[in-house]
């Protein structure tokens, strides 16, 4: 490599903005980029749940309780015996287990159920307000079973319920982190910038909240919710509870950064120049660690998701008819049900994927926060 090429790169790097440098370093973190793509797909599926889900998540069919997953076959043979592209799934045949003397479902290769992309369905409202009558995947006869990930104990489609549960579980984490971020920035920023008695009180409150045992605290707060509230009110109440508990760690991080930055030369120069406290904070201090705040927030979302899942799994958080991953995992509390229908654990796999992708994305954003590091 010639000296001219090196000099050109240095000059080019010097003309880039801070966010361009961060974005360039983030793109080189392949795992973080892949995680970001997966996370975008998860949130898109949450936003378009009514369109992507093959069936109504609340619709049940007692004839197909614990029906196993159906696999999609892309090719089929026509009347002449040639292979053609014809997406379909096989129907079910009922057999009786001679040992357990119970009904079981097996795949019937003779019954082929054609699938249609963007086929017509029952009228529905996308995201609650956009009228639509087409879904991503449909069958010609709505009475025909379509359980790509199996059915639960009431004959409800696990895939449709899993997709709709994505909306609630991911939004709880996102809304909860936004609320925690606002509280943590305000309280931690004031504590670190002004110090004194206010800082002492805030730190003692944070230490008290962090010393409380988490599970009993959740149980007490969840038990305090009135049982006559509707599902939507309970959803927002759980989100607020998680936010009121999760702001302490971020507040301490922000406080530490403010303590370190308020003695910097450029902050002192701005103060001597007569800049107001609000301008010093918003113009000079917050931009210095904005990327760090974004990384901390992205790492806090998985904690919120796990908290909601644990609360709902224990029966202390969201309850039916709300559909979340934690509510769906309540079906897997029965060992016998899991042994009969292991596909009931799919919501747990969704939690693992969401948490891992958010952690990998947060790691990539944290590494990208220092674009000059080698």
Overall mean confidence score, pLDDT: 81
How many angstroms does the end-to-end distance come to?
Answer: 18 Å
Output the CATH topology of the largest domain.
MetI-like fold
How do the SSEs run, as a string of H and E? HHHHEEEEEEHHHHHHHHHH
Describe this structure in words.
With 374 residues, the protein is an alpha+beta fold. The chain has two domains: 63-151, no CATH class; 161-368, Orthogonal Bundle (MetI-like fold), CATH 1.10.3720. Helix content is 57%, strand content 13%. It is built from 14 helices and six strands. The chain has helices spanning 3-15, 18-27, 30-47, 49-52, 158-194, 196-211, 214-223, 231-261, 265-272, 277-285, 290-313, 325-329, 335-340, 346-368, and strands at 73-77, 83-96, 103-117, 120-126, 130-134, 137-139. The strands form two sheets. It has a four-stranded antiparallel β-sheet, with no helix packed on it. A hairpin with a 5-residue loop joins strand 1 (73-77) and strand 2 (83-96). Helix 6 crosses helix 8 (231-261) and helix 9 (265-272) runs antiparallel to helix 10. The chain starts with a helix and ends in a 6-residue tail after the last helix.
